[in-house]
Amino acid sequence: MAQDRLSILGMTFHAHHGLEDHEIENGQRFEIDVEMLLDISKAAATDHLRDTVDVRKVYKDIQTIVVNQRFYLIETLSQRVADTMLKNYDIEQVTVRVRKPVAPLGGLANGTQIEVIRSRED
């Protein structure tokens, strides 16, 4: 099993996910981190992008999910991102963190976060 980790941190999108009417109507900021376990030895040896995961494509895939789809729960959003990463890329495992910095909690907090870890074996 590969032990190499490729990450994209702090992707930020304005989207319309949530349960509350104001979340759906006005939208809010969502922050996403993705960490992928893969074997980078071939890419390291060849120095060719085709031998690794193109992070620009990963970003676009995640952007499409977050901006163009609609979910009530960040749990569902994070699962959709994880499923897409495992389907579209030659990776063994993915960790997805979705943060909602301004979650309507009824009090002060630095938001909410869900983290899912999925692998090909799941």
Structural topology:
Elements: E1 4-15, H1 21-26, E2 28-38, H2 41-46, H3 55-68, H4 74-88, E3 93-100, E4 112-119
Antiparallel strand pairs: 1-2, 2-3, 3-4
Task: Give the structure's gist in a few sentences.
The protein is α+β, with helices and mostly antiparallel strands and 122 residues long. It has four helices and four strands. It has a four-stranded antiparallel β-sheet.
Structure, explained:
- The chain has 122 residues and is of the alpha+beta class.
- It has a single domain, classed as GTP Cyclohydrolase I, domain 2.
- 34% of the residues lie in helices and 32% in strands.
- The protein has four helices and four strands, in the order E-H-E-H-H-H-E-E.
- The protein has helices spanning 21-26, 41-46, 55-68, 74-88; strands spanning 4-15, 28-38, 93-100, 112-119.
- Strands 1-2-3-4 form a four-stranded antiparallel β-sheet.
- It is elongated and about 50 Å long.
- The two termini are 15 Å apart.
The radius of gyration computed from the alpha-carbon positions, rounded to a whole number of angstroms, is 16 Å
**End-to-end gap:** 15 Å
- What's the level 1 CATH class? Alpha Beta
Shape: elongated
Q: Which key phrases capture this entry?
A:
122 residues; GTP Cyclohydrolase I, domain 2; four-stranded antiparallel β-sheet; 4 helices; 34% helix; 32% strand; elongated
